[in-house]
Amino acid sequence: MKEAIKNNKKVIIILVAIILILLIGIAYAYLRTTLEGQEEYVIRVGTLDLVLGEDNELTLEKQIPIEDSEGMSLNGFSFSLTNNGNIETDYTIYLDDIPLDEGETRMPDSAIRYSLTRNDEVFMTRNMTTMGSDPNRRVDFGTIGIDETINYTLRIWIDYDATTEEASGKTFKGKLRVVATQPVGEEVSTVLLLENIPKENQYDDGTDTFITGEDPNNYIWYSGKLWRAVSVNNDAKTTKLVTQWNISATNYDNDSNEFEGSYIEEWLNDTTEDGFLGNLRDYQKFIVMDSKWDTTIDDSSGLGSSEKPSGTSTVIDPVGLLNKYEYQSSYYGLDFADHNSYLNNGLYWWTLTPDSLSQINLIQNTGNPIKSSVLGRNGIRPSINLKSNVKIVDGDGTIDNPYRLKGDNDTNLSGTLLNTRYSGEYVRFGTDENNLYRIVSHENRIGTKITSAEPLKDSGTFKTLAFGNSEIYSSTNTIGSFLNGDYLTNYVGDNYSNMIEDDTSWYLGTVENGASYKFAKYIDINMSGYAIITDAKVGLLRYGELMAGQFNINDNNTFWWTLTPAEEVAVYYLSDLGGVNAYGLYYSFGIKPSLNLKSNVVITGGNGTKNNPFTLS
User: Fold this and answer.
1) β-strand 219-222 against 403-405: which pairing, if any?
2) Are 67 and 57 contacting, i.e. CB atoms less than 8 angstroms apart?
3) 231 vs 135, residue with greater confidence
4) Which residues pair with 583 in a beta bridge?
5) How many other C-beta atoms can be found within 10 angstroms of the C-beta atom of residue 200?
6) How far apart, in whole angstroms, are the C-alpha atoms of residue 136 and residue 89?
7) Could you say which DSSP state residue 612 is in?
8) What are the pLDDT digits (tens) for 339-369?
9) What is the distance between the alpha carbons of residues 280 and 289, in angstroms, rounded to a whole number?
10) Are 307 and 300 in contact (CB under 8 A)?
């Protein structure tokens, strides 16, 4: 176990020098638009003045790691951007490495925390690895209007959980770089409703315009996940999205059908290292943080009978679920009996609409709403509202070429550390038919947890195994012995196996009927300590974990084990229809390996999508 600096009784002197240099003057912004059938292009020029604060150097010395609350009290480094030009300008602020002096050793980004304040609003407090890696370490991005000034304060400090190995005697030096370009792309709402979705696939209820039909071109790729655009608010021009597939599965709650305070609300809005919201890319830039979710009771039966909810019960959250009426609205112009809306993904998944005082509306695999107890363990399709200024910069909205959003459409990622990327992105890993994986999270803060994109196959057939003779996973029980032996040799191979951390902590907390998903990892719902832990090189996903969902009903038609005990001699497995159930240890189910890649694994190609996954070295 690595020794944490905070546990040292002596004072450790660490120099962290941040030299933030901005060139004051003119940055030229260019727009190059190639016209169809012409070799000519349009160039426009504007000016962007970069104005520094009084001090352009921030130095931390003789410091020890501190809590985030203390780091937020630091003065930080203040600077501002002012656009004195005649056009609005897109900009991106990067934090680049500065060469160290002789004898100095660079501190890894994983040992540094930062906070960014923009126009007096605390924009984010995160580990520096979330910025990306040099030279693509992104502090912020956006559009600055004519005569607009944006004020920033950047604070950095040594992570309270940094280890001696990571930070003792190390130095970090960096400089700010601003890249300015002419704005490109159009707002999401404009592309969807005015340019791409035909009027016969739109339904305006006076408040929102819903996208309808069997398979409209409304696919959007954002933060490693495939989404469907559901509706556009007529006034605010925000766009509601829902994930195409179930990101995970849990029970709704234990005794209440109210969304506010439920287990599922907590799961969706969890900002920890392995939480859903916490793993969305720059979520404060992309999504409406005070979205209103209508949770009004609807006790109607079947499709076609739901009325627009009255708004008598609403919840304010960044992330929610679709309600029953929103799901029904996608059927406008279709035959309800056919259950052929694009929102029917062939799986079981929760809505946020109560059916009565004790039940929730659940969408079946057939596409029909049914009543379900809150104790049921079903799929989760998170929903968000994109801000009105989010722009589409690529794609055509089809499943093979989904829309790409400005700020989430990276190119030339070769040399970037994998541990700076996002949950859901695809990576090429392993051999033959089992060589596609997805990022789960950065649970250990330094590496990248991945899982196979689908359960393992042998010659096209899903491989199955019994769990073992105990509900407690280990590297020596039946499934653990396979994963830490034959799997590494014959399904991964030496080149990839060397990228895997030799020991990962796997959390084996028991989640009894009606208990919170948090017990799979933590001792209590306050997340104040870890449940039972075992160490192994390879493990499985746990109950309620990110990416523990079904992602293709046509291909993933098998059950597969998690590593979470439900009770004595029973372990949870994910069903082929997206729900979670518990079964005895001697039944044979599919296997989705999970493992932590080392912090020095780098991307050598690809863009992280299913059609172009990252390649690694």
Assistant:
1) parallel
2) no
3) 231
4) 571
5) 10
6) 20
7) B
8) 999 999 999 999 999 998 789 999 999 999 9
9) 12
10) yes
With a cut of 80, say whether residue 305 has pLDDT above it: yes
Q: How far apart are CA 89 and CA 252, in angstroms?
A: 44
- The H or E element that residue 209 is part of is strand 208-211
How far is C-alpha 20 from the chain's CA centre? 29
8 A C-beta contact, residue 49 and residue 25:
yes
What is the pLDDT, as a whole number, of residue 557? 67
Please say if the pLDDT value at position 61 is more than 60.
Answer: no
Please name the residue that has the structure tokens 């944006």.
150
Neighbours of 598 (CB within 10 A): 15
pLDDT digits (tens, 9 = 90+) for 195-238: 899 999 999 999 999 999 999 999 999 999 999 999 999 999 99
pLDDT of residue 35: 21
Percent of the chain with pLDDT over 90: 64
| Residue appearing with tokens 């506010």 | 260
Identity of the amino acid at 138: R
**Strand partners for 458:** 461
State the pLDDT at residue 357.
Answer: 75
Strands, sheet with 121-127, edge to edge from the N-terminal-most edge strand = 49-52, 77-82, 149-158, 112-118, 121-127
Structure tokens at 134: 């040099």
Cα 55 from chain centroid (whole Å):
36
With cut-offs at 50, 70 and 90, classify the pLDDT of residue 66.
confident
Which residue has 């700010």 as its token pair?
176
Phi, psi (degrees; rounded to nearest 5) at 110 = -65, -15
CA torsion, ordered 100, 102, 105, 108, to nearest 10 deg: 10
DSSP, collapsed to helix, strand or coil, labels residue 150 as strand
Task: Please give the Cα distance from 191 to 264 (Å, whole number).
Answer: 32
**With bands split at pLDDT 50, 70 and 90, how would you rate the model's confidence at 145?**
confident
φ/ψ of residue 574, rounded to 5: -95, 130
Residue 62 DSSP symbol: S
Q: Locate 316 and state its tokens.
A: 């304010």
CB 578 within 8 A of CB 550: yes
Alpha-carbon distances of 606 from 299, 411, 532, rounded to whole Å: 48, 9, 37
Task: Report the distance separating Cα 170 and Cα 14, nearest Å.
Answer: 6
Instruction: Examine the pLDDT at 17 and tell me if it is beyond 50.
Output: no
Q: How many CA atoms lie within 13 A of 106 on its CB side?
A: 11
Q: What is the CA radius of gyration of the chain?
A: 25
What value does the mean pLDDT take over residues 283-298? 96
Tokens of 482: 């396979």
Give the confidence band of 47 by pLDDT, cuts at 50, 70, 90.
low
- Which tokens sit at 201? 């696939």
- The domain ranges of the chain are 5-183, 238-386, 411-616
